[in-house]
Design brief:
The complex is a heterodimer. Chain A is about 35% helix and about 20% strand. Chain A is of the alpha/beta class. In chain A, the strands form 3 sheets. Chain A has a 7-stranded mixed sheet with strand order 3-2-4-5-7-6-12, sandwiched between helices. Classes of the chains: A alpha/beta, B alpha/beta. The interface between A and B is large, with 42 and 43 residues.
Chain lengths: ~325, ~350
């Protein structure tokens, strides 16, 4: 297996799928001549030409709708948003048009398209460039929402999404683009949607997470191990469809859950997960679910303030300890963060 | 209210530099029949709506039929793409969709064009190139450039016709789409059907530039106004536009027209005078084309009466078909959310 960057894994996924299927094309701001604002699409315009790797004006609603029209008549567009924050300019196209065309036409049209780009904080990009958008899109029937936390997942999941006939919101994380990892080689490597990845087996508490936060969750499990607490860490990867079976199997084993996400809590995906777990495994729970989430503020600029808004390994580990303290099995441990 | 603006005056058709089309006699009779069908179908819809057989919104096309016939007859059937907003009952019928299937959709029946899931605003017939049927003002325009982009991508000589209401001109999607079409030189004809009211808001209340065709010129798109009550003028403009678009030159037509009925069935019409409506009805395209056919001896008044009777029966049959069709089932409810 080759060790490559997350951004290279995304690029390889697109390159391989564009080589495999000439209906696949990429459009967005700076994807061509600039080689990608974050160099995801580097070299692709040289290889595939200006129509298949299309530089668009700064007009998200316009080019997102254009991608939908192209998808309705048989192309398989990938739309790159420079950040998911800018997708809000195209929200009407995504929610009112892309998500609904198949249903409104009772299956006469499909919209095989991948909308992808980075989201998340940690780079001091402040309030308008650091949001996590998953809750807004998961809410809407007709869309799938997929995240990737590792280079291997980035490649395998993106390839699957490009081959899928549904419109898919593919959420990368800006803080992961430089991450290196082993990635299986060969054009046939794909990862199915709706299958969670159990990153670490454990018996005392389940930590559910996804995207960049999964790395903090894994670190939290290591911290907990020092206290002889065995945490199971699950990377949900695909948020809709969701691998509820994997979640419930783990809950039945550990009886305690921490949900760790960078996104806001209010009406958010962590609340959704809590609701599902309470609904399906109420009797299994030995402690209330702990949600460790982004602080309910627009992302501030100052480095220290930004760090306070985003959960980390310590805050996740503390939450895990609280679930154990409440169920009476361990004495509460207080740590200074 | 009436005669606010010379270009909006029913008695002063807009000047149009292009030539009117020469439409062969047999085709003209055919187009007249199609226009009549559209008119009678919409009248039947109004009746069914007041009988509460049709729910939701119901936007009628009555008065604008010269656009319907003049624009759609210039396209290549079952090949070119047509997309519009929510005033969409009659375009698919013109393109060959059975009136029964359209009416069944309006009635919310399984035999409807979307199995009862779309309703009045979401009619589709992709096999014939009718791509909807969209409910958000201006939302169809970016999608339209996508069809044109795909045609260019695949080197197909398909043209896309995108109907746009005057009410969609102020929205961002219109300007973004024209810009992209202008950059990429997409094979598309944007047609602004300027019926002069965005719902109940008069054109000059919502547009700083009342000559809407001028927006096309800003984006390097060849643009012209046309008298939308004149079938020959609309067809002439569209023939030119389609030829240029098929050659990779995006086009825009502003067709000045008028709807005789309200914005929707719920419209009380308090924003315009009866006199203004009457004035425009003097230029009813059905009357104009009918008079021409009589004058030329292509049809007799008996022929026209017979035609109307035949079409009324066809529309009644469509309504009967809809009425007797089954409703969708609970199993249909969850179909086609995802592939």
């Amino acid at each position: 297996m080759a060790v490559i960057q997350y951004r290279e894994a995304l690029r390889e996924a697109m390159r391989e799928e564009m080589e495999r299927d000439d209906r696949v094309c990429l459009m967005g701001e700076e994807v061509g001549g600039y080689n990608g604002a974050y160099r995801i699409s580097e070299g692709l315009m040289d290889q595939f030409g200006r129509m298949r790797v299309l530089d668009t004006p700064i007009a998200e609603e316009g080019f997102t709708g254009m991608a939908l029209g192209a998808a309705m008549v048989g192309l398989r567009p990938i739309v790159e948003y420079m950040t998911w924050n800018f997708s809000l300019v195209a929200f009407d196209m995504i929610i009112n048009h892309i998500a609904k065309v198949r249903y409104m036409s009772d299956g006469q049209f499909t919209a095989p398209m991948v909308l992808r780009g980075p989201q998340g904080g940690g780079q001091q990009l402040t309030a308008q460039h650091s949001q996590c958008v998953e809750a807004w899109y998961i809410h809407c029937p007709g869309l799938y929402v997929v995240t990737a936390a590792t280079p291997a997942d980035a490649k395998g999941l993106l390839k699957t999404c490009i081959r899928n006939d549904n419109p898919i919101i593919f959420l990368e994380h800006l803080g992961l683009y430089n991450l290196k990892g082993e990635v299986p080689e060969g054009p046939d490597f794909t990862i199915p949607l709706g299958v969670a990845d159990i990153r670490k087996q454990g018996t005392d508490v389940t930590i559910l997470s996804y995207s960049k936060m999964i790395h903090s969750a894994v670190q939290a499990a290591e911290l907990l191990e020092r206290d002889e607490i065995s945490a199971e860490v699950i990377d949900l990867r695909s948020l809709r469809p969701l691998d509820l079976d994997a979640i419930l199997a783990s809950v039945r084993k550990t009886h305690r859950v921490v949900i760790a996400t960078e996104a806001w809590q209010d009406s958010g995906f962590s609340r959704e997960l809590s609701g599902l777990i309470y609904q399906h495994a109420f009797d299994e729970m030995d402690a209330p679910i702990e949600e460790v989430t982004g602080a309910p503020v627009p992302m501030p600029y100052a480095k220290n303030l930004e760090a306070m808004t985003i959960p980390n390994a310590e805050t996740i580990a503390d939450a895990a300890r609280r679930t154990l303290a409440r169920s009476g099995e361990f004495a509460p441990i207080t740590r200074l963060v | 209210m009436a005669n606010r603006n010379a270009t909006l005056d029913a008695k002063s058709p807009v000047a149009y530099a292009g030539s009117k089309a020469v439409i062969p006699d047999d085709e003209l009779v055919y187009l007249y029949r199609q226009m009549l069908l559209a008119r009678r179908f919409e009248e039947r819809c109004a009746q069914s709506y007041t009988q509460a057989k049709i729910g939701g919104y119901c936007h009628l096309y009555i008065g604008q039929e010269a656009n319907l016939a003049g624009l759609l007859s210039a396209l290549r059937p079952n090949w070119d793409y047509v997309i519009t907003a929510y005033r969409d009952h009659v375009q698919p019928i013109f393109m060959g969709t059975s009136p029964g299937a359209v009416m069944a959709e309006l009635y919310g029946r399984k035999t409807g064009t979307s199995g009862g899931k779309g309703g009045s605003m979401h009619l589709y017939d992709p096999a014939r190139g009718f791509m909807g049927g969209w409910g958000i003002v201006g939302g169809q325009i970016p999608i339209a450039i996508g069809f044109a982009f795909a045609a260019k991508y695949r080197n197909e000589d398909r043209v896309t016709l995108c109907f746009i209401g005057d009410g969609a001109v102020p929205i961002g999607a219109f300007h973004e789409s024209l810009n992209i079409a202008g950059i990429l030189r997409l094979p598309i004809v944007f047609v602004i059907e300027n019926n002069q009211y965005a719902m109940g808001t008069a054109l000059e209340v919502s547009n700083a530039i009342p000559d809407l065709y001028k927006h096309g010129e800003r984006f390097n798109i060849q643009s012209r106004p046309v008298d939308g009550m004149d079938l020959w003028a609309v067809r002439g403009a569209m023939d030119e536009a389609v030829a240029a678009a098929r050659n990779g030159e995006p086009q825009l037509i502003e067709s000045k027209t008028y709807r005789f009925r309200g914005h929707s069935m719920a419209d009380a019409g308090q924003y315009r005078t009866k006199e203004e409506v009457q004035e425009w009805k003097q230029r009813d395209p059905l009357e104009t084309v009918g008079a021409y056919l009589l004058e030329r001896g292509l049809l007799t008044t008996d022929d026209i009466d017979r035609l109307n009777e035949e079409i009324r029966a066809e529309c009644a049959a469509a309504a009967d078909f809809a009425d007797s069709s089954p409703a969708p089932t609970e199993a249909d409810l969850f179909n086609n959310v995802y592939v």
